[in-house]
């Protein structure tokens, strides 16, 4: 049987081991579509898996990587045929299903989305789960009724992958975007993406009051914990915050005050098991609403063998924007 390059994670006596190795095609898991993977990406969750800092990986051996873009090699699924260009994000890849840091992947055809017209496979992975999550957040805010006329919107973790794409999209849609970051040196980068204001994350780090001065109509939060509690306490009457991350922790030291006294809504965003129709809608909006020039500016390219090193960097807050991983 054929073998191919892959980043393999194995269980060790203490923690896990990670290595770029040859993987036997016979060991691929069940699926009705086999894809030749061309590009992947590096998300925060990939960093957790590669470093073993959190129990993201649920089976061993595991091929890391939660996203890929590539070309269908073989298919018994009625929707896909050899030669089709596809994107796959989430669905437990890199966690419970062999993932994307490999030259081949076998998945369920129901997990796939056609590569949107106008996007290259590299573009799709420059967006990746982080950008896809950012767009799901924007769609949720729009569904809530937010528009640029509603008032300013805040984006936390602004220099990260979710934050960078959220700022680029929201600013292009006409929103006044307030970017929150712990990296003051990134102010020019964030303003170039479209942020109208940049605030230090320390403004959102103190214990949250039940209600604070109203500052924004909505926001996208990838940080969680005290930061999210402060966002909620500062959201205008009838506004909403889309919560999609936990970089600072899973806790939420808040109160019911914003919800019952200002009618604020907390919108939960899940990209992993998101149904297929919202996935298609998000990818189409990304193809139309994300400036390609800005996408290029926020993207750094690495090789497959560099993924473990960069996985540690993303957890240390040393990565700006998006990372694409060249597979083939």
TrEMBL record:
What GO MF terms are annotated? acryloyl-CoA reductase (NADPH) activity
Q: Which InterPro entries match?
A: Acrylyl-CoA_reductase_AcuI (IPR014188), ADH-like_C (IPR013149), ADH-like_N (IPR013154), ER (IPR020843), GroES-like_sf (IPR011032), NAD(P)-bd_dom_sf (IPR036291), Zn-ADH-like_protein (IPR051397)
Please name one Pfam family that this protein belongs to: ADH_N
> Which parts of the sequence belong to the Enoyl reductase (ER) domain?
15-325
Cited CDD domains: MDR_yhdh
UniProt protein name: Oxidoreductase
């Amino acid at each position: 049987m054929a073998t191919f390059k892959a980043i393999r994670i194995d269980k060790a006596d203490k923690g896990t081991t990670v290595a770029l190795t040859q993987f036997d095609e016979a060991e691929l898991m069940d699926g009705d579509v086999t894809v030749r993977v061309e590009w992947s990406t590096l998300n925060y969750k990939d960093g957790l898996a590669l470093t073993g800092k959190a129990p993201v990986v649920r089976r061993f051996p595991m091929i890391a990587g939660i996203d890929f873009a590539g070309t269908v090699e073989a298919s018994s699924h009625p929707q896909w045929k050899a030669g089709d260009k596809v994107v796959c994000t989430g669905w437990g890849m890199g966690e419970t299903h062999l993932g994307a840091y490999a030259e081949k992947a076998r998945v369920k055809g129901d997990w796939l989305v056609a590569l949107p017209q106008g996007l290259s496979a590299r573009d799709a992975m420059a967006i990746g789960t982080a950008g896809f999550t950012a767009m799901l957040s924007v769609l949720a805010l729009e569904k809530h009724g937010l528009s640029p006329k509603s008032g300013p919107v805040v984006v936390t973790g602004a220099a990260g992958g979710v934050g960078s794409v959220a700022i680029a999209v929201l600013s292009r849609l006409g929103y006044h975007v307030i970017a929150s970051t712990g990296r003051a040196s990134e102010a020019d980068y964030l303003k170039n993406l479209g942020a109208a204001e940049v605030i230090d994350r320390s403004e959102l780090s103190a214990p949250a009051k039940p209600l604070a001065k109203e500052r924004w109509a909505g926001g996208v939060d990838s940080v969680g914990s005290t930061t999210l509690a402060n966002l909620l306490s500062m959201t205008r009457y009838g506004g909403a915050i889309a919560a999609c991350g936990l970089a600072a922790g899973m806790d939420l030291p808040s109160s019911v005050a914003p919800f019952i006294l200002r009618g604020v809504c907390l919108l939960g965003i899940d990209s992993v098991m998101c149904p297929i129709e919202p996935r298609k809608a998000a990818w189409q909006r990304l193809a139309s609403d994300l400036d390609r020039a800005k996408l290029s500016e926020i993207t750094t390219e690495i090789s497959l063998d560099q993924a473990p090193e960069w996985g540690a960097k993303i957890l240390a807050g040393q990565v700006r924007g998006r990372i694409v991983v060249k597979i083939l």
